[in-house]
Amino acid sequence: MVNYYQAKINSLRNIEANTQSTSTAAWMTAGFQAATADQTRRSAAAQEEQLALQQKMAQQTRNHQFAMWRQTPDGIAYLQWRERGIHLAQSIRNRDSDWRQGWARVIGRAQAEIPQDEVQRFVNHPARVRQVRLKVMSVLGFVVAGLAGIGLLFNLLMGNIAASIDAGGALTYDDCLELLKDPSTIMTPGNCEAIKPDDPVGASMVWFVILFVIAVGLVILRTVKRHAARTDPTVPNEAQARIGRWGFDPLAVFPGYVGFAWYARQKDDEYADRLMWLALNGPERLPMQSELIRLEMPLATQPHESHPVEVNEVLSRFHQERS
Fold this sequence. Notes:
The chain is an all-alpha fold. The protein contains ten helices and no strands. The protein has helices at about 1-70, 75-115, 115-130, 130-165, 175-180, 190-195, 200-230, 235-245, 270-285, 310-320.
């Protein structure tokens, strides 16, 4: 008996030891995870501080280099060039804006001269080609016809079940009609009509056929209308006539459209962008005097009788500003 109680005591001690060991392990695991997370945050913060410090030191170095360089002949020439370069780039971009506004006036005048029915045909043409409404209606038609087909199958199934039940010996409508042919029968036509079954299958079949035919008809109608819109020469011919009259289609232009650039030389197209780039990046690149872009307002195209009036007015003003 003593051995039994001693074994019990040893067992309880083992359980307590295991419990304490498990609790200690869990506490140590949680502490380790917390320490790891804290260390990760500290490492990330240290990396961010290191990166910020490197960037600040690099910026200070660049500032120091620029401060020393600006006292050299190249730096002095650049600082003088930069102010004039920024002003010239802004003036060129102002001209670009005036040029777009001039073309906007041209487009507005041209659009006002186009007959309203011609404008309406142009606006409605994409919708005529797509025929979205008929497409949606045809899809809905097939969906409804499909639901009617499911109803038809259900009624056929229920009809077969009802027929199998009637085959158990009950008098059917067809049997009643056969009995009426016998002169000695006591059945009357009213008795037969009283047991005449409904015909849900026939009604479902009619609705399914009607809805399916309508859906197919909508598909055919959409195909015909799309073909008619694509082959109708009215809209393309009117577009060609507008291009022949104004040199562009006033109804098809995108926002900010210009017929041509106001620069007489094509290479001047990105001149303002190059000026601004060098003005903004010069303190880092420290350019030599030979790298500075020549500052000169681009030459404007000459007015021409073939140009719209509004365009010639803008070009004339550009030439007057240059002189």
